[in-house]
Specification:
Layout (H helix, E strand, L loop, with lengths): L1 E5 L10 H9 L2 E4 L11 H8 L3 E3 L2 H5 L3 H9 L2 E5 L7 H12 L4 E4 L4 H9 L10 E3 L2 H4 L4 H12 L4 E5 L1 E2 L4 E2 L2 H9 L5 E6 L7 E6 H4 L9 E5 L5 H10 L11
Parallel strand pairs: 1-4, 1-5, 2-3, 2-4, 6-7
Antiparallel strand pairs: 7-12, 8-9, 10-11, 10-12
């Protein structure tokens, strides 16, 4: 059995009760930290909280050499841990399909996702989000990829919001921050942005302003998300005014 367990958004407490039960019943537990991390907990914290030993796999160890994971799942109860929800990333879908090809039973224990948290914390309606995108570090892609700008532009033309996931460089332990992301996009767009920081923690932050202004601010420790809103419904605008951890005249326009 190969169970994919979503860890939720922030720390060792974010996993569901069912996920905790699966963890404690597992013979072996694997995890990766290149698609997402828990900013409020280390692997050691997870191990202590749930009484398990976790084997960390890098991208190669999941995508190109998954044999240790699959072999363990053929002979015992195996859990693969993922930040957020397990099947948001195609990496995990691929691993599940590989297991299915070998006749290994799989199951998914869902966790809270960044997308639902972004909607809940900002008051922007979930059904009004379009296609999401990921903003990479500019030194790895020579600047802001055209595909990112196209996704945001297409969504805005349709009046839809864009959730921008911010890059995680596991090899160098770099986490893109909201001000960096806003600054990168401000070179191409002059519009409202919303930074969401520490989602899932006891004190999450929401800050709405024009991208150029957000680029000059600091939003505390990771993880950060950036939302580029499309057309705001009056209730969404009221929600952003009420939930914004700052003060901005930008919400009176755009």
């Amino acid at each position: 059995m190969l169970g994919f367990v979503g860890l939720g958004l922030y720390d060792e407490r974010s996993v569901t009760l069912r996920g905790r039960e699966e963890l404690r019943a597992a013979d072996r537990v694997f995890a990766e930290q290149y698609t997402s991390i828990l900013a409020g907990a280390s692997l050691a914290d997870l191990e202590r909280a749930h009484g398990v030993e976790i084997e960390l796999r890098d991208r190669t160890g999941v995508e190109r050499d998954p044999e240790p994971i699959l072999a363990a799942a053929e002979t015992g109860q195996t859990v693969f841990l993922v930040g957020g929800d397990p099947m948001v990333s195609t990496t995990h879908v691929d691993l599940r399909l590989r297991a299915d090809d070998r006749g290994i039973e799989t199951q998914v224990v869902h966790g809270t996702t960044a997308q639902t948290a972004a909607s809940s914390l900002t008051g922007l309606q979930n059904y009004r989000f379009g296609k999401a995108t990921t903003l990479p570090f500019p030194d790895t892609h020579g600047g802001v990829p055209g595909s990112v700008l196209e996704t945001i532009g297409d969504n805005r033309e349709r009046g839809l919001h864009t959730l921008v996931y911010l890059d995680i460089d596991a090899a160098t332990d770099r986490l893109m921050t909201g001000d960096t992301a806003a600054g990168l996009l401000a070179d191409h767009l002059d519009c409202l942005g919303v930074v969401v920081a520490q989602a899932g923690s006891d004190d999450p932050l929401v800050r709405a302003d024009r991208l150029g202004t957000l680029a000059t601010e600091s939003f505390g420790p990771p993880l950060h998300l950036l939302v580029v809103p499309g057309e705001l419904h009056p209730m969404e605008r009221d929600a952003l005014r009420a939930l914004d951890d700052g003060s901005s005249d930008a919400l009176n326009g755009d």
